[in-house]
Amino acid sequence: MADTQYITKNRLSQEVNKARVWVAIIGAPIAGFLMYKLPNLWWIVGLAYLFSVIGAASTKRSGAKGELKTLKLLEKLPDSYVLFNQVDVPNSRAKRGFTELDLIVVGPNGVFVVEVKNNNSKVTGDDQAANWIAHKVGRKGGRYTAKVRNPIKQLKKQVHVLAEHLKKNRASTWIDGVVFFSHRSARVKLSSPPSVPVLERKGLVEYILNYQPKRAPANLNTAAQELVRLKQKSN
Question: What pLDDT, on the 0 to 100 scale, is given for residue 56?
């Protein structure tokens, strides 16, 4: 079993709980204020506010479930592999000053950055497109589409940021990236072969175990130590 000592409680789950508290504590005063100011329309504004909070919480809840499901899969790796979740890597070009990486695996054959998506629909797109399209079916059978950020571009950015950081800290090593759609209903259809692996539902553990880097990984221990330091700062 993989080393999971650096796995901490999912931030998205914590944010969902905060959203529930926000609705309970803040929602009532807002509703009262709207009833006073907008006696005929307060309920419309109130519902819009409520649905916006619930919708954001639902998205975060889905993301948290996807990451937890993927972690359960990765735990099946041998004990020579170490798992990290939600690591903040310094990035001066980012608004928050860092880039968050969902999951990182460190093993004898390299470092793997895993970008997790939990879409429960068919997703179409292109390697170079800014956005992909999720094809969804509503509760009453109606079909609609929604844009999702291109996870390949997200992943490449994350790999680049991590590689730059490790290089600055004399911990350069081989880094590979994987996009993993964790939901059992996920189906991905791309118009051209992806430049990084895009896996659906399964095959992630096997991919990592069978991966052969183009050159022998160096500084793996130093890289792992730096990730431990970053993880401790992220908490």
Answer: 47
pLDDT tens track for 4-17: 999 998 754 444 44
pLDDT of 144 higher than 70:
yes
User: How far apart, in whole angstroms, are the C-alpha atoms of residue 190 and residue 167?
Assistant: 33
For residue 28, what pLDDT is reported? Answer: 53
Pick the closest to residue 229 from 168, 175, 174 (CA basis). Answer: 168
For residue 166, give both structure tokens. Answer: 């490790």
Is the CB of residue 115 less than 8 Å from the CB of residue 180?
A: yes
3-state secondary structure of 63: helix
Highest mean predicted confidence (pLDDT) among 49-53, 107-111, 198-202: 107-111
Predicted structure pTM score:
0.79
Distance CA 221, CA 131 (A): 36
Burial of 83 (0-12, 13-18, 19+ CB in 10 A): buried
Strand runs (DSSP E) across the chain, as ranges?
3-6, 82-90, 98-107, 110-117, 122-125, 131-137, 143-149, 175-181, 187-190, 198-200
C-alpha distances in Å from residue 128, one per residue of 150, 156, 192, 194, 195: 8, 11, 10, 9, 9
Rounded to whole angstroms, how far apart are CA atoms 111 and 100? 16
Give the chain's radius of gyration (CA, Å).
Answer: 20
